[in-house]
Automatic annotation (TrEMBL):
This protein's record includes keyword Iron: yes
Family per similarity comment: Belongs to the iron/ascorbate-dependent oxidoreductase family.
GO molecular function: dioxygenase activity; metal ion binding
Domain Fe2OG dioxygenase: 238-341
PANTHER family: OS03G0690500 PROTEIN (PTHR10209:SF859), OXIDOREDUCTASE, 2OG-FE II OXYGENASE FAMILY PROTEIN (PTHR10209)
Keyword set, alphabetical order: Iron, Metal-binding, Oxidoreductase
Alphabetized InterPro entries for the sequence: DIOX_N, IPNS-like_FE2OG_OXY, IPNS-like_sf, Oxoglu/Fe-dep_dioxygenase_dom
Species of provenance: Dioscorea cayennensis subsp. rotundata (White Guinea yam)
Protein name according to UniProt: 1-aminocyclopropane-1-carboxylate oxidase homolog 1-like
Length: 391
């Protein structure tokens, strides 16, 4: 199937009609909520449904030759254009000889995790070849001309171990992200080799092995940064579940209207991110200003996630981040989330050892299933998922 045939004639007509309606009714960038209220001819639900049924994602739009961003991808201007700063540099922590330099490295991890929640690691033990092959696999999968092969993985069934789609919250979010994603649920119960797309059939298991190994080292460092035994967080099953989210950000014809990934914090304990070598776009929020997190050769990005802030009783800081859209592309990344969503009845609360000095708990205990359900609800912009669980 040719790339520009990803959409049927009816689907192309529906999408083009919506684009035309938008351009005829406004000559400036307007708030999308106001726009949808004032333009009665716009059928957002039908446009999203037509797009989703192509199973071609944002890449399908680009391959079809669109020159304007569909309206359901348009974000309010103030969410894209906002204050930024170049004063903060993301720390790079050299993990070479981690066992002999452990005290020094723990202190650096502690400082970064307590203050900004973001840091990079160098000499982390993951071979460059493995990282390169993982990024190459994303491009091969997304660029595959055999649309039938790719579409068989397109799904919104969260129980699947391998799932490809565009925006997990496409039907519920105020505006969609300019991004396609292939998800692998690699732990505790990984997919069979035959369930994995051909492009990933070898590399995803090798990559996950290295992620699990690095993740366990990071848990030791984070445990000691909290003044706990090295295996404390591992024993709490903070690396029980591993999800690898392979993101593909196609070039965007109007990056001033769209965003690659909207502002969010991660739901689990921490995330290991492999970034595209050459295309930037990742930003983290610090003191209400956006800070660029550019790619660094050979480095991986680590960010603290919500549940680690909860169980550390606010000692370690989760952080909101986003990815900007760009006319360059495709931009590729792999986010490995360490979480425990596969033990829905597991209870997490502030670690008792951290309260031994008389510190009051900031959060109540929460069951994983409750936390996940709340995290996936839509909250007013700026409201953390953690606020709901504060005492």
């Amino acid at each position: 199937m040719a790339k520009d045939d990803a959409f049927t004639d009816d689907q192309k007509h529906c999408l083009k009609k919506s684009f035309s309606s938008y351009r005829q009714n406004t000559s400036s960038i307007a708030d999308t909520t106001q726009l949808s209220m004032s333009t009665t001819s716009y059928d957002r639900a039908s446009e999203i449904k037509a797009f989703d049924e192509t199973k071609a994602g944002v890449k399908g739009l680009v391959d079809a030759g669109i020159t304007e961003v569909p309206r359901f991808f348009i974000h309010p201007t103030e969410t894209i254009i906002s204050d930024s700063t170049t004063e903060l540099q993301i720390p790079v922590i050299d993990m070479k000889d981690v066992n002999t330099r452990k005290k020094e490295i723990v202190e650096k991890v502690k400082e970064a995790s307590e203050t900004i929640g973001f840091f990079k690691v160098a000499n982390h033990g993951v071979p460059n070849k493995v990282m390169d092959e993982m990024l190459d696999a994303i491009k091969r999968f997304m660029d595959d001309d055999d649309e039938g092969e790719k579409k068989k993985y397109y799904s919104r069934d969260n129980d699947r171990k391998v799932m490809f789609n565009c925006n997990y919250d496409l039907y519920s979010s105020p505006a969609a992200n300019w991004r396609d994603t292939l998800i692998f649920r690699m732990a505790p119960d990984p997919p069979e080799k035959e369930e994995v797309p051909c492009a990933f059939r070898e590399i995803v298991f090798d990559y996950s092995f290295h992620m699990k190994k690095l993740g366990e080292v990071l848990l030791e460092l984070l445990s000691e940064a909290l003044g706990l035994k090295p295996d404390h967080l591992k024993e709490m099953e903070c690396a029980h579940g591993i999800v690898a989210a392979c993101h593909y950000y196609p070039p965007c014809p109007e990056p001033h209207l769209a965003i690659g990934t909207s502002k969010h914090s991660d739901p689990g304990f921490f995330t290991i991110l492999l970034q595209d070598k050459s295309i930037s776009g990742l930003q983290m929020l610090h003191n209400n200003k956006w800070v660029d997190v550019p790619p660094s050769p050979g480095c991986l990005v680590i960010n603290i996630a919500d549940l680690l802030q909860l169980i550390s009783n606010d000692k370690l800081k989760t952080v909101e981040h986003r990815v900007l859209a760009s006319k360059e592309g495709p931009r590729l990344s792999v986010a490995c989330l360490f979480l425990n969503q596969y033990s829905p009845s597991r209870v997490y609360g502030p670690i008792m050892e951290l309260l031994a000095n008389g510190s009051a708990p900031i959060y109540r205990e929460v069951v994983i299933d409750e936390f996940n359900k709340h995290y996936n609800t839509k909250r007013p912009d700026g409201m953390s998922a953690l606020d709901h669980f504060k005492l």
